[in-house]
Amino acid sequence: MTTSTTSSQTPPPRPAGDASASSAQQLSEFVGTMGPIVGLFLVFALFATLQPRTFLALDNLQIILLNTAVVGTAALGATVIIISGGIDLSVGSNIALCTVVIALCRSRNMPVIESALMGILASTGVGLLIGLLVTQLKLSSFIVTLGLWGAVRGFAKWLAGGAEIATAPSWISQLLQMLQPGQRWMIVPWGVWLLILLTLFVALVLRYTRFGRHVFAIGSNEQTARLCGIPVARTKILIFIFATVFAGIAGLLQFSYLNNLGDPTTANGYELNVIASVVIGGASLSGGKGSVFGSLVGALLMTVVANGCNKINLSNAVQDMVTGAIIVAAAAFDQFRQPQETVK
Amino acid sequence: MPRLRMKGVRKHFGATIALDGVDLSVQSGEVLALVGENGAGKSTLMKILSGALAPDDGVMWLDGRLYAPRDPLDARRRGVGMIYQELSLAKDLTVMENILLGMEPTTAGVLRWSEMKRRSAEAMAQLGRPDIDGTLPLRRLSLAERQLVEIGRAICIGCQVLVLDEPTSSLTQSDIRHLFELVRRLKADGLAIIYISHFLEEVREISDRFEVLRDGKSVGGGESAQTPASRIISLMVGRSVDQLYPRSPRKQGEPILEVKHLAGKSKPLDATLTLHRGEVVGVAGLVGAGRTELMRSIFGLDRITSGQVRIGAYVGPASPARRWAEKMGLVSEDRKSEGLAVELDIADNLTMTRLGWLVNPATQAAESRIWIRKLGIRCRSPKQMVRDLSGGNQQKIAVARLLHHDVDIFLLDEPTRGIDVGSKAQIYQLIDELACRGKAILMVSSYLPDLLGVCDRIAVMCKARLGRLLPVDQTNEHQIMLEATGAMEMG
Question: What is the pLDDT of residues B350-380, one digit of tens each?
Fold first, then answer.
C-alpha cells in the first residue's frame, strides 16, 4: 500500500495554499509587522500637530535621523542576539571602547580606514569573548554581558588613560554631520545611508542564509537545533561576533558624532536604548522572534519621542517617563495581539 | 438528573468548525470516557467545560442549574476540576501549598499553617495516599504522585465533575493500576468523571460509558465493557480499521548499524544490537529502563563512555551533525521540548537539517508542500506555525524531517505517543513502506501491541541493559513483560 491510500483513510487534507490562511491570523500578522510603524506614525503625527514649525523643519528631521544612527546600528546586532535567545548588556561599553581604540590609532597617525577597522576589530574581540564565555562556561549571556558591561568600560578607560582623546579632523566626522548646502543631493548624511544598507543586509542574512535560519532555530528551541545537527555552540559564538561588528560600526558612528573624539564614558546606558528598540520592534526576549526593520522603527520611535518632547518644551524627566511608557506599551500590545495559550 | 449535561455546544475558530453541536451528559458516580482522534474536538470541548473558552452556541447544566463559567477559576469554584496531561504545579512549593494554591486559609493575610496541613492531609487521605507528607517539596515526588497532588487540589476545592485528560500517558504500569483504583474510589464517592484517553483497553476497563467525537460531532457511544475495541475505533475514524499494522513481506538486507557494548554516563549500561536494511527492530521496556538514552547515545546527543557504534565503516566520535551526514535521523519522544521548534513554521522545521549556505524560502515552502501532501498533514500552508497543529500532524512533521533528509537509518522514539488512531495507522503504514524500500528502522515504544505488530525483531531493555534480539514470532506480550520487569532473572 502507498501513502496516498493511507491519507485517503482520513478526511482529505485541506489544500495547502497560502490563500486559505484564516483572515484572523493574517490580520494578526499584519498588525504585528505594522504595529511599530503605526506607533511611529502616531507619535510623529502628534508632534507634527503640536509643533509643526520647528518639529517638521527639514533640519530637525535630519537631526532625528542623525540621533538614531548609533543606537539603530547597534540594534541591528542586538536583534540577531535577541532572536537567538540571548542578550547583550555590554553594547554601550563596547561602543565606548571602539571610539577609544579608533582615537588611539588616529593619534598614532594610523590612516583613517585602518583605525576604523581596528575599532571594529576590538569590538568583535569582545563579541568573541562573550561567545566563548557563554558556550564554554555554559553561562547565560545576561550574566556574562553584565560582567562585561563593567569590565569593557573599565578597559576602555584604562586604554584612554582616564581621559578623552581628541584627534585630528578626518572624514569620519562627516558620517554623522548635518548636510552642507552643497550636499542636498544626498538627501540624508552618509551615516544614515550606511544604517539603511546595513539594515537591508542583516534582514537578508536572517531570511536567506543558513546562519540566519539557525539563529531563529536556536532561539526558538535550542534542543531541537541540537537534534537537527546544528552546531549550537559554534553558531552562538558566530552570533556574538556578527552582532559586535555592528556594535563596532555603531562605535565608529559615535566617534563621528563626537567629532573625532575617543571617549571612554560615552554611550552610557545605550544598551537599554538598544534593547528597548529591539523590543518595541516586536522581538521577544525569550527568543525565536524579531525583525531588524522593527528594531529600526523602534530606534526611530525613541528618537522622535525625545526630539518631539524637546520641541514642545517638555523636561527631560517627562521624556524619560514617556519613553518608558512606550516600551511597556509596545510589549503589552504584542502580548494582547498574541494571547498566551491557555493552560494546555 | 445528570450531574453535568451539555447540549448543542458549538464553537468555531475563523473558518474552522471545531465543535458542531455536541451533546454529552455524566451522572454522579459514573465514569464517562471521551474518545476521538486528535483534532476531533475533545480539547475544545473540555476547554469550554472548564471555562477557558466560551461556546458560540449551546447550553450546559450542572446539577440541573444553568452553567456558564466566566473563566477557569469560576469553573473550579462551581466544582469542575480539570487534570491536564501537563500538570500545572509549582515544583518548588510543598505538597500542601500546591494543593491549596489560590485558596490558602488566612487570617488577616497570614497563612494558617495548621489548617493547611489538616486540609491537605484530608485530601491525600481521600486519595488513598495519607503517607505523602504535605510538607515535602513537590520536586521530591514522582510523576504519578504529582498527578495525585493535582487531583488533590481539585478534590480540595469541592470538585464534583473531574476531567482527566490522558492521565496515563506518562505513567508506569503499576502507577496506572493505582490511578484506576483511585478513579473507582472517587466514583464511589459520587464524583462524575470524564476520562479522555487514546488507550482503548484503558477506556474499556475504567469507564462505564463512552462517547465518541469525530470532526466536532458526537457520533455515538455506549456501554464500554460490552463494546469491542474495534467497534470504538471504527466510530472514531469513521471506517473499520482491520489493518492497523500493515506488514508487507520484507527482505533483510546488509547490516547498516552495529552497536557493541554501548554504555553512557548512567544509561545505557550495556547494549549490543545489529540493525539491517529492510527491517524494523523494536526496543521494549518499562519507562526509565534507558531506552531513550540508548537512542540518544547512538545519535550522538548523549555522551558515550564505552563501547562503539558502527555505521557503514565509520566508528568514531558522534555528534548529531555527523549522524545526519551519515544518513541517520532521530524522532524525539518529546515533540514539544525537543522534537520540534513549535514557534517556527512547518517549512523551517521540515528543512532544518538540510539547508545550504543560502536559503530560498520559496524552495523551502515548495519542498514542504511535497511532504504535506504525501503524509496528508492537515495545515493551512507551509508557513503555519507548528504550534497550531494537532499532535498527530506535528508528529508527521517530525517524521517528515527524516524523509526529507532522505535518511537510511530511522531512530524513532515513541513515534506514536499521544497521537490519534488515524495518524498512528498512517505512521505504521509509512514505517512498513520504508522497511520495504530497504531503510532500517530502530523503534522504541511503550505500547507492546504496536511493537509486536510493526517490528521484525524485538529486544527488551531492563535496568539499562539491552536483552537479546528475538524474531517477533518467537516472543509475545507475556514474555516481554516478564523480561522488562526483570521477573525472568528471579524465575
Answer: 999 999 999 999 999 999 999 999 999 988 8
pTM: 0.77
C-alpha A68/C-alpha B182 separation (Å) is 64
CB contact under 8 A, A17 and B381: yes
Within a domain: A92: yes
**Domains contained in chain A, number:** 1
Q: Which residues in chain A touch residue B372, judged by CB atoms under 8 angstroms apart?
A: 13, 16
Q: Most distant CA pair in chain A: distance in Å?
A: 80
Length of chain B: 491
Percent of chain A with pLDDT over 90: 70
* Under 8 Å between Cβ of B175 and B93: no
Q: What is the mean pLDDT of chain B?
A: 89
Q: Which of B70, B217, B381 to mutate to test the interface with A (most CBs of A within 10 A)?
A: B381
ipTM of the complex: 0.81
Q: Which domain holds residue A293?
A: 36-334
In chain A, the residue whose alpha carbon lies closest to the alpha carbon of B425 is A6
Cα–Cα distances in angstroms (integers) from residue B86 to residues A35, B72, B105, B133, B266, in the given order:
34, 16, 27, 23, 27
B144-201 pLDDT per residue, tens: 888 889 899 888 888 899 999 888 877 777 888 889 999 999 999 999 999 998 777 8
